[in-house]
Amino acid sequence: MESRAPIRNQELRIAIIGGGRRCLTALEMLNSRLMHRLQAKIVGVADLNPEAVGITRAREMGIFTTDDCTALFDLDQIDLIIELTDNRRLLDELALSKPDSVGVIGHTASRLFHDMVAIYQQLESKHEEISLAHSFSQALIDATSEGVMVLDRDYRILRVNQAALTKSGLDRSEALGKYCFQVSHQSISPCDCPETPCPMLATLNTGKSAHAIHEHSQPDGSTHFCDVSTYPLLNRQGDVVQVLEIFRDITSELSQRVERRAAAIKADLATLVQEDKLISLGKLVASVSHEINNPIASILNFTKLMHKGLATGQATAQDLADYQGYLSLCISEGERCAKIVSNLLSFARQQSSAPRRVDLVDLVNATVLLTAHRMKIANIALVLELPGEGLTVWGDPSQLQQVFTNLVFNAIEAMPQGGTLSIHGGLSQAQGRVRLIFSDTGEGIRPENLSRVFEPFFTTKLDGHGVGLGLSMVYGIVRDHGGEVTVTSQLGHGAMFTVDLPWLSAEDAPVREAGA
Description:
Rossmann fold, alpha/beta
């Protein structure tokens, strides 16, 4: 049987002639990736100077060194000799004396090889730097608690941190390559629209950072409010090639802001109600002063007439009968004045909320009595259709009368040329609601203003005729009583305000009063 020689490991065994600095560089390349890929190994170094830096380093590394170049041929299976001395005669002698299996690279070729290795090392160094920078940036974005994504121009996710993955419920392999709107909004199309403009698109178009508040859908179906900011990543030409998106969940923060704002509004509500009451009170005083002037004048005239007749001492039986009629009129007019003043004082009284059983029919009648003169001089006809009883609710009578006063004054001011104010009341026992409707024949409310009439400080009245608190107070008071107030209007055909309040039945009244 034919014997075969053992197969040698395919390792390139190199010897170097010249122990200077270039030799030292070659030795330092031993651990480079290039040497590992070439499977190269330096096995010997020759130089006449035993103290040359390359020779010294080779000796420290355990590599064979010599001052005789031909001694390198005695080494086991040399594959390549690299000559670094640029000695042409030496190179020729080596070419003649070397074994046929050994290659020789001269000074010029070795320099080219050296430069190629140096370039490769620089590339390797750059790759290392890039890899390190990539790892560093990934560590930075993973360290933040805010969601971070790097997107390409097509909205695809190139990089993503753990915070964003946790919010989306995905792992990294699932998120990479997906569109950002698929992960953030659970949507199949970009999120850009007039209500929620896309900051990513703005950054692509302008090359500048952008910001927006978006609702992000969660895997469980809930939505969170996020503060989203985008920043451009530019190439050397200044073009936006990628976009960095950072988003922060502000749902809890917004909720706390809303709660604080609601608490502040609630704290200010009592003050606003009182301020609005003072405005209405000023109007009522002006109206009532004229309203009680006439009966007081009548009382004065009758009493003067009776005083004059009795002073003569000659009053006849007919005179006494007439005086009795005069006294009846004085009593009637006095009681009417007393009722007006009592209602005015009740309305003006500043008191804490005291809920109790309230008959809305009585409250509406009291309001009409206080505003009757104002309606008369404004040429307003009143149509009042209320049941005799049954419109009973649980609430604060002072605040509810303020609601009705505001609605009456609002209707009067909506008809500067006169018109008709209709107040209708009714009860729906099936729905458990009491309803009062205040409608006027004024110019109506413009469609663009209809949704804003209950906003604080919104008014369409001329300067000096209102500060926009009346209807907002109506809305707040009715809502606090568990009711609802709505408005409908058609331009040129007046407006209609409907107040619905929970009905207090005879069975509920004792329970409420006991609880009070």
